[in-house]
Amino acid sequence: MTDARFPVSFEKSRQLAARMAALGIREADLDEQFVRSGGPGGQNVNKVSTCVLLTHRPTGISVRCQQERSQAMNRFLARRILADKIEAERLGRQSRTRQEIEKIRRQKRRRSRRARRKMLADKRLASRKKEGRRPPSEEP
Prior knowledge:
The chain is an alpha+beta fold. It has a domain at 28-103: Double Stranded RNA Binding Domain (2-Layer Sandwich), CATH 3.30.160. 56% of the residues lie in helices and 12% in strands. It has 4 helices and 3 strands; from the N terminus they run H-E-H-E-E-H-H. It has helices at residues 10-23, 43-47, 71-108, 113-133; strands spanning 30-35, 51-56, 61-65. It has a 3-stranded antiparallel sheet, covered by helices on one side. Helix 1 (10-23) packs across helix 3 (71-108). It is elongated.
């Protein structure tokens, strides 16, 4: 059983619609254009506008899809790619802010006494090693 809009299974079409709804992507917010594809595909590519240009107006993200010879399949794939891009952008923002928070937390955290002692001991050891590499100073 296939959906009337896309030549994929009803289940895949339903999953895509649910994912788009979860991300807040509405069909009304999409601008869809069809242009002729390039590359292999023969007469079908030259005659039929199978390439899909999809633009999400609120975010300004655009997607171009010409992977398949079928316009309907490219429409489905373009929506999937658009959902991937929007999801990556949102997760990217969240992870960036999380990283900044963690960086500030690390900067504010004080070292424990034991860690401080170990760090200073390591510095002293490195200093002694470097001292041994220096040439002896010439005294008059």
